[in-house]
Amino acid sequence: MHFNRQLKRLEIQPVSGEISIGGTWGSEVVHANTKSGLVETESSNGVFSAKNQAQENKNLAAANEKRMNGTSYASSSLNVNGFVEGERYSMTETKVATLDGSSDGHVTSNSFSKIQKSNGNASSYSSDDELVSIEGNMCASATGVVRVQSRKKAEMFLVRTDGFSCAREKVTESSLAFTHPSTQQQMLMWKSTPKTVLLLKKLGPELMKEAKEVASFLYYQEKMNVLVEPEVHDIFARIPGFGFVQTFYTQDTSDLHERVDFVACLGGDGVILHASNLFRGAVPPVVSFNLGSLGFLTSHTFEDYRQDLKQVIHGNNTAEGVYITLRMRLRCEIFRNGKAVPGKIFDVLNEVVVDRGSNPYLSKIECYEHDRLITKVQGDGVIVATPTGSTAYSTAAGGSMVHPNVPCMLFTPICPHSLSFRPVILPDSARLELKIPDDARSNAWVSFDGKRRQQLSRGHSVRISMSQHPLPTVNKCDQTGDWFHSLIRCLNWNERMDQKAL
């Protein structure tokens, strides 16, 4: 029998009649080839021919019906010959102990002999170095099949389909490994000292005292340019000594990120959502001070604003820089009958919601992922949230709370008309489309971060994907410590009485 060297695999079956393992009989089909003097044994992997020797047949016949302690065994000492690319090898079976401790079972040993054909004399030896073509581990099955599997594996490499390089994954000796976790703590380092800060606060006269204090500190002590929104600038203009405060035009904020080095927010989570709405593209780093009612995203206290702002401005002077969290945003675009609606592109930080509004009927929403229909929502609506928004509307609707560094989207139904419709988490590479079908009983409504609410008629859809521009927020401690602190402070996460000791 001849073998291909590229496969480096040898399969052998001994010519035995019956084998008993644990009292169950198995048999092999044996054919006698009288012309060639060979015995052929059929297996699932082909036919193997071995030389039919008289002494071997005697040993097999004597061992076929041998019984001991009510169990039959088959044992033999069989030499099997094989050929690998013109060279001849032999494999010898040896007696080994069976399952119940006796020594009448047999298995083929990992011993090969190469038969030299130079002068007609057969000289045998056992050398692993000489048997490269059939090198490998031996294994014997209940039917006597012995396989020699090569240690050489097929080489492989990885190709990303998202257009990015494989910086995290590596292939070493045909094995896959990660060089680092998928997400890590990010640090902010300035190439040059920042010069301009955008100061955001709640609209109206609230928090003007705090805004004046922060603006004076940034301008007089840190020598920075201070920008505010036009409505707030009108208030500063009436206060003596604050002529240094500048403003911008809110009609066009497309180039605002080119003028602002970082953003300082005074208020609650709504101010951060407002900052995300101001920057349609890239967003500067945001440091927020908790002066609102809840403040899940505002990890800094106003009492420490001097120290924290200095840390942000002069972060390069520290050994570790400034810790930040890159908060994923969603890019949402409205389509009408398959065509994009001009000016209807939104970047959301928390969630996009499609619901039935004030209609008395259940909403019917077709959900596609990469143009493939995955489900139909029948209920009050559906939420597609970011990890940052997972602790907002999505959690109230039964969704999971997700760390902001996990790259994913949350797909959470709102009061679905199905007991099996559970929230799911999708990778950040997902491309969703929420479409109102033509047979829907009524129209639907869509909102982005709770604002810019508008109607979706039949045939309209909203396409959702990961935005290229995240919102970087400055951490008080680190991204994980700040997140758990907010869970406990704002949501009383796992707050309970401790069990008493025994």
UniProtKB/TrEMBL annotation:
One of its GO terms (biological process) is NAD+ metabolic process. The keyword Nucleotide-binding applies. It is an enzyme of class 2 (transferase). GO terms for molecular function: ATP binding; calmodulin binding; NAD+ kinase activity. Its EC number is 2.7.1.23. Keywords: ATP-binding, Calmodulin-binding, Chloroplast, Kinase, NAD, NADP, Nucleotide-binding, Plastid, Transferase, Transit peptide. Its main location: plastid. It is found in: Plastid, Chloroplast. It holds the Pfam family NAD_kinase_C. InterPro entries: ATP-NAD_kinase_N, ATP-NAD_kinase_PpnK-typ_C, NAD/diacylglycerol_kinase_sf, NADK. Residues 101-122 are annotated as: Disordered. It catalyses: NAD(+) + ATP = ADP + NADP(+) + H(+). Signal peptide: none annotated. PANTHER family: NAD KINASE, NAD KINASE 2, CHLOROPLASTIC. Involved in chlorophyll synthesis and chloroplast protection against oxidative damage. Belongs to the NAD kinase family. This is NAD(+) kinase. It comes from Gossypium klotzschianum.
